[in-house]
């Protein structure tokens, strides 16, 4: 069977200025990234006939800035989490509804809000989180159980994912130091990325000494808020012959529908990435042993370990030992990981910087941080908890 994504390529990528508290309007950052991606694809704005986004700068404003009338080709989370607009764009070009679709994600350092909760609501019993028999777990969707978490005074994803991490530690002996190697590897790679917001050297002592956030997470386990935008152009596969550089092909995609919510999965502490990767592997003849490069979501260090196991690079419980010491995940290692510095050091772009970097590496355009042996197959992943998406890319 031929899946629709195989008729799509990533023809162009673009990134805006990156910084912390820059004061630059989101619209300006968006247009910097969008124009750069269109130019990188060897196209003119008039060639763009589709737009997909997560609802950052409105598509109508991008159309107006580019003086075009591109159709809406998908927005929101869908079933691929933050990668849903990219997946929607692949479907749009495969079905002939568009030829070139631009997708963008723009982030600004704005304050968050606490979800509403019932006053004096009781905390959910721990049995509901860990020990209830499978048949007794309620059927919940992606965000249905957040009120229970907030009622238990767990107000952020740092709290929620710390539960998954602690459970993984109890089951498999995963250590804080092993989490640290994800952060240290990211910082080592960020040193070679002029756009990364944190490039100073980091030691294990620095990591272990960072202030606590939500046990076992400390400050350096958490991604870095930034201002910035990343854009990508998805084109029909036949455009590869006219692309000014090696086109990146979409081999397979996978997403989740949020079943099980944050803590009602029967296989807890596993998360939505287990469903997303299963779908991805069902759509290709490739296997985990074919992967040359991994740009994996690191909103928190533990999420990267969870993705390594979900993808099949490691068996359950083996991701900690796999990253320990940092040699296997170095740029010249067995599986180069988050070569741009990841969200932990470069900055939080909700996985779109990972997609940008994956394309650069596969094209051989990553400059000083290009991996020693140019990769031919790369995996990009976004998300954790109840929503996740992943893409297998080739060049």
UniProtKB/TrEMBL annotation:
<dbReference type="Pfam" id="PF22691">
    <property type="entry name" value="Thiolase_C_1"/>
</dbReference>
<keyword id="KW-0808">Transferase</keyword>
<dbReference type="InterPro" id="IPR002155">
    <property type="entry name" value="Thiolase"/>
</dbReference>
<dbReference type="InterPro" id="IPR016039">
    <property type="entry name" value="Thiolase-like"/>
</dbReference>
<feature type="domain" description="Thiolase C-terminal">
    <location>
        <begin position="264"/>
        <end position="386"/>
    </location>
</feature>
<protein>
    <submittedName>
        <fullName>Acetyl-CoA acetyltransferase</fullName>
    </submittedName>
</protein>
<dbReference type="InterPro" id="IPR055140">
    <property type="entry name" value="Thiolase_C_2"/>
</dbReference>
<dbReference type="GO" id="GO:0016747">
    <property type="term" value="F:acyltransferase activity, transferring groups other than amino-acyl groups"/>
</dbReference>
């Amino acid at each position: 069977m031929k899946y629709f994504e195989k008729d799509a390529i990533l023809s162009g990528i673009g990134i805006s200025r990156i910084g912390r508290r820059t004061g630059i309007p989101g619209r300006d950052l968006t247009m910097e990234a969008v124009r750069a991606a269109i130019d990188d694809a060897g196209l003119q704005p008039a060639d763009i006939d589709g737009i997909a986004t997560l609802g950052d700068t409105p598509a109508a404003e991008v159309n107006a800035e580019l003086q075009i009338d591109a159709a809406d080709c998908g927005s929101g989370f869908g079933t691929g989490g933050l990668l849903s607009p990219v997946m929607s764009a692949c479907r749009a070009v495969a079905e002939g509804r568009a030829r070139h679709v631009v997708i963008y994600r723009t982030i600004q350092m704005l304050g968050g809000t606490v979800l509403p909760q019932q006053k004096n609501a009781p905390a959910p019993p721990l049995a509901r989180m860990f020990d209830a028999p499978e048949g007794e777990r309620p059927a919940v969707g992606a965000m249905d159980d957040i009120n229970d978490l907030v009622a238990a005074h767990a107000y952020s994803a740092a709290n929620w994912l710390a539960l998954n991490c602690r459970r993984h530690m109890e089951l498999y002996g995963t250590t804080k130091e092993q989490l640290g190697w994800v952060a240290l590897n990211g910082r080592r790679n960020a040193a070679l990325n002029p756009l990364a917001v944190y490039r100073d050297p980091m030691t294990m002592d620095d990591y272990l000494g960072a202030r606590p956030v939500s046990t076992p997470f400390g400050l350096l386990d958490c991604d870095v808020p930034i201002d910035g935008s990343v854009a990508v152009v998805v084109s029909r596969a036949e455009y590869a012959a006219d692309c000014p550089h090696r086109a990146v092909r979409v081999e397979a995609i996978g997403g989740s529908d949020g079943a099980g919510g944050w803590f009602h999965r029967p296989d807890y502490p596993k998360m939505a990435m287990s469903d997303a990767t299963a779908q991805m592997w069902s759509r290709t003849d490739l296997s985990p042993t074919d992967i040359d490069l991994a740009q994996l979501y690191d909103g928190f260090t533990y999420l990267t370990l969870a993705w390594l196991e979900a993808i099949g690079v490691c068996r359950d419980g083996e991701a900690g030992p796999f990253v320990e010491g940092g040699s296997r995940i170095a740029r010249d290692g067995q599986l180069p990981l988050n070569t741009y510095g990841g969200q932990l050091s470069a900055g939080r772009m909700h996985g779109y910087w990972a997609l940008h970097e994956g394309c650069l590496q596969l094209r051989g355009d990553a400059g000083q941080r290009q991996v020693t042996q140019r990769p031919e197959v790369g995996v990009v992943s976004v998300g954790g908890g109840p929503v996740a998406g992943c893409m297998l890319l080739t060049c």
